[in-house]
Amino acid sequence: MRRTALRRLTTTPRVRKVAVIGAGTLGQQVSFQAALSGFDVALLDTTEKRLTTAKQAHERFARLFVERGEKVRAWRVPAESSLSPQAALQRISYTTDVDEACGDSDLLSENVPEVPAVKTTVYAELHAAAPSHCIFTTNSSTLLPSDFAAATGRPERFLALHFANPIFDGNIGEVMGHASTDEAVFEQVVQFARDIHMVPIRIEKEQNGYICNSLLVPWLNSALWLVTSGVASPHDVDRTWMITMGAPKGPMQVIDVIGLETVRNVFAHWGEVMRDDAAGKQMLANAAFLDAKLEAGCAGIKTGDPSSDTAKGMYDYPGPAFMKDDFLG
Ligand SMILES: NC(=O)c1ccc[n+]([C@@H]2O[C@H](COP(=O)([O-])OP(=O)(O)OC[C@H]3O[C@@H](n4cnc5c(N)ncnc54)[C@H](O)[C@@H]3O)[C@@H](O)[C@H]2O)c1
């Protein structure tokens, strides 16, 4: 077994070109971080508008790097590796063409919505376009690689590399395979995580939500349920958590950072799966609440910057209540 894995490792090309599939909240960050770390990156989405938004996000990340790079975990690296945000911007290409994005890629990071049917369809397209050696990774928050292994057409080269948001500060890379993932491919993705300045976290057996979201999702579900069931206001839920735990953020702020649509997708899917359990019922109620918020134009802070964003979410931006001096009393 070990010998097979090593033999395969020697026939696996080094990762040079990375394709990032989906240019939303996470795809924007993963593509920038990979380019900053020296990889050539192609970013794929379905419309030019989405790609333009992603390009603007990349330019903002490059400015942030200059303004506060020293304080950001994934950017605070030894001087000799001198990361250049301007060089990173040059290394990213933007496309709506799946062949152009994947044709010469060695590794791809899938960042499309947390909806199983969407991911399944995307994998078939990607498999047709990508070379056979290309490693497929998913950044799914809560779904299992084994659920999509067949759809990728290359189960042994498919696994999860999951990031936290924002990946620059919360720089972990949770690496999780499924029963047929090649051991050498797993190790190659652990190394890739290191190469893009993430701290690799090995998930030893398949788990919906890895470590990070196994903790985060029930917390968000309980917190939002207090709001949707009328127990307390979003501000008071956050204040209670922040004051009692000494935490920098409350759960409603975290929902705005993740984006309401992604949180809604997680609750809608797992609410259906767990509909007979108390937690599942809460998830379905929370998903319906978030649907109404989304319909009212509250998507959360897509820029990741609460001081400059003009969005609405669980809070109104700019100048959200939690940034005011009297928020914690
Ligand atoms: N938001 C977070 O905090 C977070 C954190 C970690 C992981 N994730 C996971 O990352 C994935 C993406 O989440 P997100 O929050 O970035 O979502 P998002 O809605 O912000 O972005 C998804 C993007 O995928 C694009 N897309 C849809 N179909 C596509 C296709 N066929 N080809 C190319 N692009 C396509 C959409 O146009 C959109 O731009 C999900 O699986 C989510 O669970 C999210």
Automatic annotation (TrEMBL):
It holds the Pfam family 3HCDH_N. NAD(+) binds at G22, A23, G24, T25, L26, G27, D45, E114, K119, S141, N165, K302. GO terms for molecular function: NAD+ binding; oxidoreductase activity, acting on the CH-OH group of donors, NAD or NADP as acceptor. The record marks H162 as: Important for catalytic activity. It comes from the Eukaryota. Residues 209-305 form the 3-hydroxyacyl-CoA dehydrogenase C-terminal domain. GO terms for biological process: fatty acid metabolic process. Residues 17-205 form the 3-hydroxyacyl-CoA dehydrogenase NAD binding domain. Keywords: NAD, Oxidoreductase. Belongs to the 3-hydroxyacyl-CoA dehydrogenase family. This is 3-hydroxybutyryl-CoA dehydrogenase. It comes from Emiliania huxleyi (strain CCMP1516). The lineage of its organism: Eukaryota, Haptista, Haptophyta, Prymnesiophyceae, Isochrysidales.
